[in-house]
Amino acid sequence: MSRFIEVPARMLPPETLDALLEAFVTRQGYDTTDTGAGMDGWVVELKQQLERHELIIAHDLELEMTEVMTLAQWRSFGRDLADDEEEGDY
């Protein structure tokens, strides 16, 4: 079984998704004062990036942690988007 799995954003309660996206904004060092919408503006932008498949939500089964990642970060783990399905891991 694979250590990392992709979690579809639609499977998360809205408040959980927002909290994950806010943590991502903070961790990436985004400036929340450069838009009139602040953190809420970034959360909306990141939700759009999730819809465009530019970001993913990954769950680490070993550490039991869930994180938002860019595709580059996901690939740094040696993963492609459909790896789980190709390997038969669900």
Describe the structure.
The protein has a 3-stranded antiparallel β-sheet with strand order 1-2-3. The chain has 90 residues and is an alpha+beta fold. The chain has a single domain (4-84), classed as YehU-like (Arc Repressor Mutant, subunit A, Orthogonal Bundle), CATH 1.10.10. 44% of the residues lie in helices and 17% in strands. The radius of gyration is 14 Å and the shape is globular.
Radius of gyration: 14 Å
The top level CATH class name: Mainly Alpha
Order of helices and strands: EHHEEHH
Q: What is the number of strand segments?
A: 3
Beta content: 15-25%
**Domain count:** 1
Q: By helix and strand content, what is the structural category?
A: alpha+beta
Shape: globular
Query: What is the helix fraction of residues, given as a range?
Result: 40-55%
Give the uncertain stretches in residue-range form. Answer: 84-90
Strand neighbour order, sheet with most strands: 1-2-3
Helix count?
4
Any descriptors?
three-stranded antiparallel beta sheet; 4 helices; Arc Repressor Mutant, subunit A; single chain; 90 residues; alpha+beta
Give a quick summary of the entry.
InterPro entries: UPF0270, YehU-like_sf. The protein is of the alpha+beta class.
